[in-house]
Amino acid sequence: MSRGTKGLSGNGQLRIIGGQWRGRKLSFTAAEGLRPTSDRVRETLFNWLAADIHGAKCLDLFAGSGALGLESLSRGATYCDFIDTSAAAIKQLQSHLQVLDGASRGHCHNDSALSFLTKAQQRWDIVFVDPPFGQDLLAPTCDLLNQLKSLSPGAMVYVESGAKEKLPDFPASWEPHREKKAGGVSYRLFIVHPE
Question: Looking at the domain assignment, is residue 1 inside a domain?
Fold first, then answer.
């Protein structure tokens, strides 16, 4: 499912803000619940990840417009899995990857985050968890990531939520690394230690 709860109409535009595709603008069809991570928040997040993004295997759960995964590929991630329940969002992401000549590095999956994780056979270095606000998806997603050993040792997990949302208890092995708020959004980065 795409991020957020605020409905959009018409078309939106996503700008990649750093790396090899810096400045590229991609149009996407706005849809109910689609809330791309803002430029300001992405800039801060990728400053936090600057030393770790190159060569990383990334997972963009609740991908929506694909803002986080596309930014990670632009900045040197080896590959990224994009997960979303919207077939239209996945089709659009596949088109964007073709236009950017990144189709071999981006893998799109039309599935729910929880269903995808239960079937996945690999581990990721950086995971973006930005579920729709107010739908209680944060806790089960983080718990499943932890239980299924989907994270590489020393992996980083980015979590975005509504600023007023009650946060779940995160796994004990997830060390809070950075945290910030911007408007109605709260976002944080964890470093995952082997249990």
Answer: no
**Domain of 119: which CATH number?**
3.40.50.150
What pTM was estimated for this model as a whole? 0.91
Question: What is the band of 32 on the pLDDT scale with cuts at 50, 70, 90?
Answer: low
Cα angle for residues 57, 20, 192 (degrees, 5° grid): 25
**Token pair of 174 as six digits:** 């997830």
pLDDT tens, 77-116?
Answer: 999 999 999 999 999 999 999 999 999 999 999 999 999 9
CA 12 to chain centre: 18
Instruction: Give the up-direction half-sphere exposure of residue 41: CA atoms within 13 A in the CB hemisphere.
Output: 23
**How far apart, in whole angstroms, are the C-alpha atoms of residue 184 and residue 195?**
33
- Domain of residue 120: give its range: 11-192
127, 146 in Cβ contact below 8 A? Answer: no
Computed on alpha carbons and rounded to an integer, the radius of gyration of the chain in Å comes to: 15
Which stretches within the chain are classed as H helix?
Answer: 39-48, 67-74, 87-99, 113-119, 138-147
